[in-house]
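Human: Can I borrow your eye for a moment on a structure tokenisation matter? Separate attempts, laid side by side, tell us more than any discussion would. Could you pick a protein and write out its sequence and tokenised fold? No explanation is needed for now; the record alone will do.

Assistant:
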Amino acid sequence: MSEELLNTVQDPFSTTRTTRKIGLGISFLKEAAEITGGHIDIESKIGVGTTVTAHFGKSHIDRQPIGNLTETIVTLVTFNPDIDFNIRYKVNDNEFIFSTEEVKAMLGDDAMINSPPVASFLSEYIQEHIDALH
């Protein structure tokens, strides 16, 4: 994203959408992290990509439930097959790194990352690795 957008992306009235004039996702993420004593970091380079890192106070009383992280990741990946996601899930000193670039390379040119069999595999694979961290 441009430097101008990067400077305003945490504002709830900043969006690139043309269908509405508000973009609450980043501002909600920021608020959720900050109420637990955490924060978010956003880095972006045009033509390279954007990295959003959220830090949460895990044991803070105001931390919202994480929900189904596996379903969220699989939904993001399957509904956005042209976007490369790199997700690092860390618990204490252990971490799981998931990269759609690596998955696409393993699948080869013929397989679609958003096909039902691949989505099913991703769901099992991601959940297994998240469970291993707890």
In short: Helices lie at 3-8, 25-34, 69-79, 100-107, 116-132.
